[in-house]
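# step 3/5: fold
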Amino acid sequence: MKKETEIIEYKESLTQLKKGIISIVSMLNKHKSGKLIFGIKDNGVVKGVSIGMNTLRDISKSISDHIEPKLYPQINEEQIEDKTCIVIDFTGKSIPYFAFGRAYIRTADEDRILSSKELEILILKKNKDKLGWDNDICVKANMSDISSKKIKEYVSKTGLKFTSKKEVLENLELIINDKLTNAAIILFGKNTSEFFPLLNLRCATFIGDDSLSKFLDMTDYEGDLFELISFAEKYILQKINVGMRLNGLVRVDVPEINFDAFRETIINAFCHRDYSIPQEINIAVFKNKVEIRNPGELYGGLTIDDILFKRISKRRNSLIANIFHRIHFVEKWGTGISKIKSLEPDTEFKVFAGFFSATFKRKNIVVNAPVNAPVNAPVKLNNLQNGILNEIDKNKNITYDELSDILNKNRVTIMRNISKLKQNEFIERVGSNKNGYWVFKKNKADNSK
């Protein structure tokens, strides 16, 4: 016979019923299931018990009377080594459980009383698992904080019908008891940062191969989740090399890191991050790599191997995941990392210090400058870069889209050339992309082709 474990307890006789009930509670609070057998000594020797007409009923009543919340286990008479024993199998998810008014926890094969602090942690964990951050109530928010325009744009992509803000949010389960959820605000809020100032996006570009090197720029972005995802995509495209290929007669931009791979990673970061941690999602562009880092380790005790090879997935933010799923931002659960690896096989995933990160290797890196290049060689600008500088000189508030229209170039090309101008310190952006403006760092007369 096997010895006792954290999920198996032996009692020699029914005189130990009270201790047996305590063991049931201990195992439930630790593992949410277990087995208690009467008729076996704690060293595994089977002795058997005497069973009367009402024995099983009396055990059931005692369990019902002395365990809270109520528990209804399976109680059976079984023959073990030709001796009659009573086997009780039980499961329960309504932790914490109490026996005779006290909470207990299983440690190895022993039952011990939970301290008040341990009990508090157990209750907090239960509530956190039951009610995620995204479907918690945003206490200070009301319907006037929700953007009708954003909801209309969203429903137009899903085939849903727009009736009213409230009705759409109710259909999307973003309202609970007539109160807006956190998810409603970060998805469709007019000013998300008013409620959650640290749940945004921070991007930085570094000169070297790690964060200890000097950074060229650092930009903080604010907005709803859809806006932040778009900002993140555009920032990476600005900072990495983008080549081209011809598809028939059409020019197609080809980033050095697969666009779908880093887009999937960005979406996953905003979908699965731990929003209870007041920390921005970080994107760092280095000389040799791009790193996307989000607060929160993998949810529910999962490992990277679980997701990558076993296709196991658990959703930390079910409301956000469902909203993304409706517009095909996320597809089948558990396929995101596999998709990224199929597009960029060298992608590295790590969990460390409360963060999850994905790192992409850059492919088109200039390792050394030409040997004969003078140390202080002037930077030569092409016609487009000079055109950008001229337009900025006319309008310091000009946007990427306006530059694209005026100069008849696509937005990605404009962003790539502005990035080069910023790296060579011709211009810099002051303030946010939405409300900021451009300033010159070098005299325009010095810009020679």
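# step 4/5: annotate
The domain at 201-361 is CATH 3.30.565.60 (Heat Shock Protein 90).
# step 5/5: archive (pending)
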